[in-house]
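Notes continue from the previous slide.

Worked example: a multi-chain complex. Inputs as given:
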Amino acid sequence: MVNLTIDGKQITVSRTATIYEAALEAGINIPVLCYAKKLLPFGACRVCLVQVEQMKGRLIPSCTTPVSEGMVVTTTSEEILKVRKTVLEFLLVNHVIECPVCDKGGECDLQELTYAHEVVTNRFQGEKFNLETDEVNPLIERNMNRCVLCGRCVRVCDEIVGYGSYSFINRGFETKIATAYDRGLNCEFCGQCVSMCPVGAILPRPFKFKARPWQLKEVDTVCGYCGNGCTVTLGVLNNKVETIRFNDKIGVNDGNLCIRGRFGYSYVNSEERLTTPLVRKGGQLVETSWDEALQVVADGFKQAQAGLGILSGARLTNEEMFLLKNLAKVAGTANLDHSGGECYKGVTEGVAGALGIAASTGTFPQVEACEAILAIRSDFYETHPVFGMVVNQAVKRNDAQLWLVADKRGKFAKLPNAKNLLHRPGMELDVLNGLARVLLDEGLAQTEGVEGVAELKQALANFGSDQVAARTGVEADALQSAARQLAAAKKSAILLAYGLPYTAYSRELGVAAANLAILLGIPGRDGSGLYLCGEKANSQGAIDLGIVPQTGGLGAQAMLDAAANGKLNALYVVGEDMLTSYPDHGKVEKALEKVPFLVVQDIFLSPTAAKAHVVLPAATFAEKDGTFTNAERRIQRVRPGIPLPGQAKTDGAIIADLIEKLGGNLAFTGSAAIFAEIGRNIPVYASVSFNGIGPQGFVWGGEILTPSRRRLQPIGGAVPVEGAFQLLTGSALYHSGTVSTRAKGPQAVVAEPYIEFGREDAKSLALKDGDLVKVAGNGVELRLKVKVDNRLPKGVLFAPYHFAAAGINRLYKGEAAVSVTVSK
Amino acid sequence: MSEAVETATAEQEIDLAGANEILDHYVDMPGALMPVLQAIQEHYGYIPEPTVHLAAERLNVYSSQIFGVLTFYAQFHLEPRGKYIVRVCKGTACHVRGANRIGDTLKERLGIGHAETTEDLKFTAEYVACIGACGMAPVIMVNDATYGSMTVQKMDEVIEKYKKMD
């Protein structure tokens, strides 16, 4: 700690603090422009100049100068104010004054500083830039005439996003911020630069001329897309979500968002939302009243009895899932599951079997300080981009070593220090087993208090480095050095994302990851963690709440099989477009056609809903009150920002109505009461009250979860996929599930399905972007648009699963990779 | 980004073998961007765009950063340059002794002004501030050869001489 005096105030701060941070801690506000809390000090704008007794003769930039013992700092004096004012005059020489039509007006740092310092005239004159506005893309507008060269966009894109779109180009007065070759922006469109820009140079286009900032009502809630659980602050005007506001004060994401969170909100305002209940009459879905619809559903459920199946999506709130579970009880069925029923087994069977807990063991922010990170499956950044940004920071700022067990060269592979253990499609399991074997062979494994060491050793007999290398294509040396360095790290993390397009070996991968974590001593160790991250906003909640197959009940796949064979009486699908998202379209279709009574509750008339006998209009995250539990066990408040459209009701309200119609009796109403009831049933939720959930949420089990046991589970390897071309499916960065295909932001960047080829294959097949190809496999042929990129090795193809039109799940039936043929 | 790479690659057919060889040499050397770019320019005569993206990929820096470096330093050229670089000195001494006439002659005969290149990629004109040979003003350089006490007539002779060469 260091003692210093700022404006006569004695303060003690950490020796790594800057003068600016020290002042902030003491409640003294120094004006800044280029400074941003989450970025490294830069010192570009000179607005934060202060006087330091020991450094007389010049003013000192407080945001880049570290504190030292005995420093005496003055932050405001006549001289300082005069210089600051001059600095502002300089900045205003080039900055075009368009405040009346600038969307930043009212929350512009430059505007506020100019106002605060009363800069009414300017002694200096100079040329203003007259650059064209970059409006090539529909999401981010760049008007570089307003730029003050603070470099915040350059830095956030590099330090946190790891994409590096921007750089300072040219020199002297000509300096400006541009992309390579000064072209239009073409990037991930996460909009981090938008959130960082202190002026109106980088703005969200969808928000242009929509509202003045002060007109917006701000509602803090949790993003409805993925399991990252980012705080999104809705900017609401006239009951419409007009934008997502920057908010780094609360939540787990430090103000960082991806394209989905920042630009993917428009579906909530969509004209295509379901607004009235629909009932099938004479073969047609016709509008009806809630009374009739609920009665029809209740009658159907009564008739179905134990032959009712309930399939939920993983974007319901915890409270709604709890009600759903109650509904199952009241309806007398044990057939309850969520999200495809296979993909979460890595958590519920793999990790739970190993550690006695079905959840991640650490929290995301701790990963930034990890020395070693192992990310399994190449799509981790695509499924959980904001957690991915934490990994970026760990690597870029703290020199963490990063290993990827991946079938492509994805975003992570481009990070410095990243070592891609690039394997043949579907062979993750063998690589993980290979790593475990090295740890055991070389005595690097932590085996004290660990059960099942001998059994695992036996099971890994065929996973010697050379054997693994031969099967997976990962070099034996790379495998061994990865294992050794992982074992040497004191703080390490293992990351594995799961979701609907990743059902193959889901249980086995969870087991293998847990084995590795145990051998590395990760579970329960401070700063380390095993992270199994669900694809959807409340995937973890669904597991916690037990929306999983019950004793004597059917899971999702079994329900579909039963339905397809005419053995299920009714199916109630809540918030899932199974026809698009579930593997094996044919099976789902047959099940939906054969089941005598199908009820679909959703926000859009999805292909699944279109097949229903009754369609119930539900709510989005932006209309709900309740809680989500993210992939690190963080329970966070979801708050309604806008009213429900038409007669739509929240899923919770609908389920509660159904319980009543079925003769059930709910002793609790309202989110807080339901949450309390959850606590009475699920012990880990008992330690916090609904209203006690703070701005950072509540992490059940604590930042580091201590496992109740450490049990290694013997596990085999994967079956290699044969064939010249192997098709992978999965998540594309810009989308999440199927609902993002209704959102303008993600659609603006990736509007339609595609099949991705690596350069080498594209060259040998003479394919270029936009060509149509026939892809055949599993007895099905699809025509898909070609996209060429440099991520895929030879023979590996990738197609995202989000799009109903593509019908990827006609090909993909849950395999790790599908052997396909390609023809023009 | 990748789309940009592809368009660029399609537009400019460049043999990347030379750049790859240069990169092989520097790839493990931290902070080697400047010498890499200089060597690439030496090899190709300028910095072709595909080499920028290649260097970015192999050196683990962003294309945007390389572009920043390329536009910061006057020494780098992003367009193909002529075989013969004609530097017309416009320093004080040359200026008073008629450097403008020399520059104008070049423009009239070859149609190229400062930083411009003839379509056949034979000549590039560059107006420079001073090349340190004020005693023989006005002075020009063609690649490494210096020509002093230039007149319009002598300029014509020099141009003709290089036109005849390959």
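Summary box: The two ends of chain A are 68 Å apart (CA to CA). The mean pLDDT of chain A is 95.
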